[in-house]
């Protein structure tokens, strides 16, 4: 187990290196630069700005310099938010995305798991069709439709909740719902499929034959196998949730990572793009590793393979 | 059954939670603001800099005008100069020397007095070539400023026309008589910085030091910076050291950099914002009919136009440019497509810019357009023009205009126009390389004078980018700079406008308006051409209605 863990961590290093290199050159090859604007900047001022940020060096030297700073843990300054470092910006935005992502995930699990299990246990009844029908709608409904609808109902009309912002705990509710309901729908469908698959297994029949109560069969025997597809899905889903969503963050005016990442790409804020890409990559690597462990714990077959 | 019970209890919890929320739903920002006197302001975008010498955006202006005060202030209705740091000023007979007499009680936020030396320091900083300030050229009206800024001479040798006669007297000497000089002073590039703070952070010629962060920023305006969360809020609070603190009724302003106009509108409707920066073009008509008390469409000093690349066929031929221009029905465009109260543009400078209103040079005449195009086609031996690409940066509003014009040119001239939307930086890069034939553009004036518009079409101006250059145009603009009377200047400006309308390197379409939502409780806020609203005159009063 330990060798598996260490080898996976070592694999992460070349992965991150390749990602950093590719991203570095891809951002530089995009047309336009961070200081282009619709009002012309005199050449000598442009040169000044570029030299301030080290953009006057040959591209490969810039790359070496960036990698050298990266090894020292320095992600450099932002070009767009002048006076702020990339690491500073990430440390401000990530907790926002993290709390939003966690609460959305909780909503997804609290709604998705029971609904999926119910559907599996009461297969081909109203208790199956109704939640699965809603889940289908949930998967299809994009957040830029659901978000404004929730705002219209709960903020504009009922005035129960704030329409936007990130200033008090109530600001968390609507965006987490918007984000969570989509994932809830997915989780419900995966849970149903996983449970149905597991309930057909021989060991469940054996448990039933031995006279275990229905709740014991489900909670003790079926749930572990039934949740495997959900767990596999949770790794990337969690990474997707906590890395922020540009759309949700724009609709609800939330200062999360997703917005930084997308606007940085539009602004050609090279260092912020690189910093967030590397941060995401690290996050995904760690979460995938975590999911592998969880799977090993849940599934004896996977344990043997490792 | 266990799961059904679980579901029920979940539902119960949810409804209890919402019931709880409903019972304690807090009053909105707008409701609280009457007592608190805090203005909630939609800023549109996060400013890149809060350093007045490096700032480049409207968003930065909106914040800096709360934090810093220049030599003079602005009348809230007319934007005419009123006393600021200087309580009075003299102008010499040749209109080239301005002497400003400072008030004794002008203070920085830390209590230091504001002196003439601070302004000398500030002007030297922005003009310092090592700082690389984008708006430093605004100060080129000062005598010898250009020489120092270009790096040709040191500050001591250049003898720039800035002199602190004593602590409270500042003399500014100009290169030319500049009738709009006092208006210029309210551009943030002319704002002072606090020398000890700049020195403390080593920011004299260094970009990106933390001096502009809350706790570090020392300004001299009616408000001081109290909080800044990127992409969330910038907070300022009334500054008790400000010389005119009694006039300031607001206790604070919160600026929210909300970028999408739909989000801004939702914020406005739930009482989160008093003022929005924009309104989505699809919503203007609805809001005008349902909520005329909210929506305001006010003239804004800007022109929306298209550039022709006159170096590339077919626009290297005047007849084609003219044919396209003559077949644009601007009236139809503003009334049926834009619908926000914009004015059709038949010249480049917006009407009554610093007293100058250009004669209408461009016109609508589809018959003449057809004749001109036919003569071009005949000469070239063509049956029809090859398809033309029209570039614009991705936006619904630009797309609508482009589609309208595409249809007009198709019906009148039978020309195929291919619309090519581009991401902003890609668009800028292809325009600046001259890699386009027809492209969308807009220009917002920096100060209220025709010069801020007409200088664009000088041969060597970095913003020209059409490839068009005309010696008579350059001459007229130089003559306007040296003119002695307004009439003489306006004659030269008119000559420039005439040349544009004859040669058509550009296609003016309409003059901007600033369409925004504003709550009826916002008082002391008047429509102004530059969308400046001196905050010390703004206050919140009135009944909150649904």
Describe the 3D structure.
The complex is a heterodimer of chains A (306) and B (546). Chain A is an all-alpha fold and 306 residues long. Helix content of chain A is 76%, strand content 0%. Chain A contains 14 helices and no strands. The mean pLDDT of chain A is 87. In chain B, helix 11 (318-326) packs antiparallel against helix 13 (366-380) and helix 17 runs antiparallel to helix 18 (486-503). Chain B has 18 helices and 18 strands. Chain B folds into 2 domains: 2-271 and 518-540, Periplasmic binding protein-like II (D-Maltodextrin-Binding Protein, domain 2), CATH 3.40.190; 299-514, Dipeptide-binding Protein, Domain 3 (Dipeptide-binding Protein, domain 3), CATH 3.10.105. Chain B has helices at residues 2-23, 29-36, 58-67, 116-127, 145-149, 155-158, 181-184, 195-200, 261-269, 284-290, 318-326, 330-338, 366-380, 396-413, 424-432, 451-454, 471-482, 486-503; strands at residues 38-42, 72-74, 81-83, 86-91, 97-102, 162-166, 169-173, 223-229, 233-238, 252-256, 295-308, 343-344, 388-393, 417-422, 438-444, 506-517, 522-523, 539-540. By secondary structure, chain B is α+β, with helices and mostly antiparallel strands. At the A-B interface, helix 2, helix 4, helix 6 and helix 12 of A face helix 1, helix 9 and helix 15 of B.
Based on the structure, what is the oligomeric state of the protein chains? heterodimer
The main pleated sheet of chain A reads as: none
Number of domains of chain B: 2
Rounded radius of gyration of chain B (Å):
26 Å
Please summarize what this structure is.
The complex is a heterodimer of chains A (306) and B (546). Chain A has 306 residues and is an all-alpha fold. Chain A has 14 helices and no strands.
